[in-house]
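Class prep. Protein, please:
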Amino acid sequence: MAVPSKILLTDLAAEIDRVPPNYVRPVSDRPNLQEVVTLDAAIPVIDLQGLHGDNHSQVIQQIGQACEEYGFFQIKNHGVAEELVGRMMGVAREFFKLPEEERLKNYSDDPKRTTRLSTSFNVRTEKVSNWRDFLRLHCHPLEQYLPEEEVAEFCTSVRALVLKLLEGISESLGLERGSIAASLGQHGQHMALNYYPPCPQPELTYGLPGHTDPNLITILLQDEVPGLQVLKDGKWVAVNPIPNTFIVNIGDQIQVISNDKYKSILHRAVVNCEKERISVPTFYCPSPDAVIGPAKELIDDDNPAVYRNFTYQEYYDRFWDRGLAKECCLDLFRT
């Protein structure tokens, strides 16, 4: 029986009981779900309540240790209202329940479009598809893109959280508190609403394969369904959701600015056969013309620069051209 031709996975997945061939990974590149490690505390959980109080130095130390040893951490008491988080997740869920013809009005396979619905990762270049649909939204400066009210409010609140975290990360590196933010030009912020439908054969495919994030820092909101995994000490570790927290991961640009002290870590999204999964990552980045390189204060005779200077546009273009290659794009910019 022929598989119906559907542009979006959401609509295709509702009609099939096997993974189509274009989603099947080679045997050497499958999730091996039985080998994934599950720990109670897979990544550190940091309480940000003390960031501007008596525990300030302790929280800064925790942030630095998490960036250096894990590249990932979870945050609680982050200042983004629980009700706002719930509304944002509701917007994402409602969007992917819209009729097919309504959703397709937003469809584009052009990565340069600032607002677009698409599927997989980069359908123009990839050889194997990923079990994901996504809506991409640019949201800084807000007045330029004007997403709907709930999304705009969420973007503004997450941006304030990012700027607070960047101060903490700067301080943990021994830099001036505003140092990293000052190196980003006009700044950039965009987000994705990721939808991973139930998959009849989750052992054959990925929601997203192992990759690092090309941007500066990512703030991830996820629903209650597990799916995120990070590479730690050569093993994939499941990061199960904790209510009212965000997951923070260090992107490639902070690895550069820190001159390799802090690590941008491989992570992936796996799928399951029972439940849909929704995640909302916010990607915070330099503006395209910002020149990125190791912070001058971190370079001396004993610690030479590991990376050359480059514009973020150059880096982002190389990242998209390569797709989700396992080798980190950072290697192309080493001195």
Observations:
- DSSP finds nine helices and 15 strands in the chain.
- Residues 213 and 245 are 20 Å apart (CA to CA).
- The first strand starts at residue 37 and ends at 38.
- The first helix runs from residue 9 to 13.
